[in-house]
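notes to self, project folder thing:

trying the whole complex as one job this time. last attempt i did each chain seperately and stitching them together was a nightmare. two parts in total, labels are on each line so i dont mix them up again. if this works i'll redo the older ones the same way
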Amino acid sequence: MLVTWHYRVRNGLMEKFDPRARWIFSLAFLFAVTMFWDARFLLFFFVLAFAWYFSSKAKWKETRRGWLLIGFILFMMIVVNTIITGGGAGGVVPKGGHLVWPAGLFLLGWKIPFDLTWERLWFAICQIMRISSISAIFLIIPYTMDPRQYGVTFRGLGLPDSFAYSMELAFRYVPTLARDFTTTFDAQRARGYEIERVKGNIFKQIVRVAPLIVPVTMNSIMMGEDITDAMDLRCFGQRPRTWLYQLNYHWQDYVLISLGIAMLLVGIFSLYVFHIGGFWVPAFFIH
Amino acid sequence: MQKKLWKFGTKEVVYAAIGAALYGILGLATNLLQLPSAGNVSIRPAIVIPMFFGVVFGPIVGFISGFLGNIISDLLSGYGLWFWWDLGNGLIGLISGLIFLRIVTYKSGKEIVLAEIFGVIGVVVGMALASISEMWVSGADIKTVIFGNFLPSAITDAIWGLILLPILMIAYAAVNKRSGR
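result (full assembly):
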């Protein structure tokens, strides 16, 4: 099994920011955007999110798989739940509203009971803007953040040394475990095990995955003992750690963090002080 | 050595990392192998890893295995990061690990049943948190969240856990005995 990180150096604008500043901005963006259902605010977040996304210089070919998944989720959530069944709009869109087909929807002479309202349709547009904005911000992270820097990044964000080191170790352990998995898989196949032909009811299928999961898990637990001993012998955890990669904030990082905090503050004040930003339908949209 | 529920020493640091990497790799591998699945629900037999690591090494190890493992799996598959689902997976490991002090032999019927109960509670709480967060993020209503997110993910995860957790515990008991630990 080929296990590769999706990160590449692309020299995009996004890579000029400190990973800590990017995490703070991304999380602030998430909390800020989820305060709004007003399309005017959501449009701002939508433009900002995709400007941020395109600053990564990631190609469509690379991110296609992620977007297909998001497209499927959006389809289920918006077309099926909000537009067809009306379920997804519950709680945000007020009851009633203006019907798109007041006389009913006729298909091949049959009247179909479909009470789609303009309000629900507008809500669907808001949902698309909100979900795709959040997706653009978070989808791009694996493609633009160096996996070697996750440990030191989260240490810099205040996580204790031991937790950050655990993250660092996990990322470094991935290729080793992928190799062990491939070895085990090949060995089991040599004994006649074929996961592609697992048959029977759901319980039989699950049990037959065990010859793959059990040896890989037990093998890595046995290896963990050696790593623990080696770390104990080197007095792990007795003093604060030093990290191979050093992160330093620059002026652009402070700008990004300030933007994130400003978005949050605007969201809080709009929602709780000025009571704006809730669901709103423009008059021109309702015929 | 006496077990401590919230200890996070060298051993726990290492096994949390191994659990996370293992969950990430097995999650990715079983997705790529396209196991027979029902409907559009993504099935992930690797969900047993945070449960097992929680039961054997404690709640913090279980939490990191699930939380970080889900991040690694998403990073490797290119699906982006979905923080609330990572947190839900972490909770599965954490709640499974709350029974850590009561598990000694790893193979007695009572211990296996206890581990299974905590594993299922973990799945219910973890997937409920992740699913409910979709209401906040996507504006979905409670029915959509229950039938579209919670039930498919919780049922499949619970079934995988219920069947694979005892197998891993018994295998671990054998490995433990053989290695003289």
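what i see at first glance: Chain B touches chain A through 67 residues (CB under 8 Å).
need to look closer tmrw
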